Amino acid sequence: MRSTTRKPSYVVRPPTAVLTRGFDPRLSVGSVRPAVFRSSTYVFSSPESAERAFSIALGRTHSVQGESVDLIYSRLSHPNAEILEDQIVPLEAGATSAAVFNSGMAAISTLFFTFCPPGSSFVYTTPVYGGTHHLIHQILDSFGMLGIPVPAGNTAALTRAITEAKNLRIVFIETPANPTLKMTDLSAAAAAARAHPNLPLVAVDNTFMGPTFQHPIAHQADLAVYSGTKFLSGFSDMLAGVIIGRDSELIATLRGTRAILGNILQPDECWMLNGRLPTVSLRMNRQSKNAQRIAEALAAHPKIKTMNYPTLFDDPEQIRIRDEQCRFPGSILSFDLHGGKRAAFDFLRRLKITHDAVSLGGVESLACHPATTTHSEMCEEDLRAAGISDGLVRISVGVEDARDLLHEFREALDAI
Ligand SMILES: *Cc1c(COP(=O)(O)O)cnc(C)c1O
Predict the structure, then answer these.
(1) What total number of domains does the chain contain?
(2) Residue 353, domain CATH
(3) Cβ of 205 below 6 Å from ligand 1
(4) Domain that holds residue 131
(5) 227 lines ligand 1 (CB under 6 A)
(6) Test site for ligand 1: of 100, 109, 207, 242, most ligand atoms within 8 A of the Cβ
(7) What is the mean pLDDT of residues 364-380?
């Protein structure tokens, strides 16, 4: 935020940058960590500064490099949002700026309402997060925004859908897909989008793998979208959303919509999320190692029909995308049980360490049955096409000792 003292004279790497940029202790009476600024409104340094701040906030003019612009009112922005938005940028390779929202869905809906006017279209991958599915079908559709679905992982179909779409504004990709872990080729999507006369934005829901294992902007996407509720915050104790972009103009436009929808992340939540950033890669690395051990150890269990996990892909196209896009396999796995819904419910009932709950990315392991919970708004046909069967269980692996988790999963599987 604002003036910065004692900056390193060389470019530091992300885990260092997240601890050193965007915050000047002198502006928080020397406090090593940021203070929380709960004010709803800010005192102007002069009427001229107030006029200038409004001109910039309303897009009538731009701030100049290094200019310190007065804050106005917390719905537009506040110090804790500014600090968080500055500190999160180095975690997303190729990004220049970020906007924070009070949930992942707030971020996603603001994205669509900002860049997709009525009568326009967008292409999106399926299956998509349950809330996004609801937004597309129950809300955007009635505003005249046409969603064009494409199955995750089908590069040819994605390229064709983008090329043929009329009045196309956004290509929205969730990769890996939830809960099947199917991966979609970001570079191919970006190439098709660049060749389209409408120059649609490529936005990637990077909640599952980012910001540690997958960097959409480095693969030519425009925006990386996050539910900060998941890995970024990491303790299942808050809601947040983030959009990070290569072009600060796009982020400024999103902030303009945010100011009117009133869905900026509140100061206390910004402060909490800010404190979680330096450990996100530590947590994700441990969670990914745990998940890999568990997925590979259980894959051949006789009760499991198929195990979905990136190191166990056997489709050459999926392996190619994985190797190009993801540094590590991540901590989400899902498996299809022999015995359908009864077997899946039986498995969930037997877990003691792992809780039966939706959400993911926290330090504690969670398991759920997607067909009857997170994905229950999908019709039978779409569920079948996406590979979300009655016997499918999704697990988000935490930072517990993997041996304890493996022990309880084996016991539960054996007992089904
Ligand atoms: C949780 C989630 C969201 C929505 O985020 P909220 O913070 O719950 O609003 C969006 N996309 C994905 C992939 C998610 O897992």
Answers:
(1) 2
(2) 3.90.1150.10
(3) yes
(4) 74-279
(5) yes
(6) 207
(7) 95
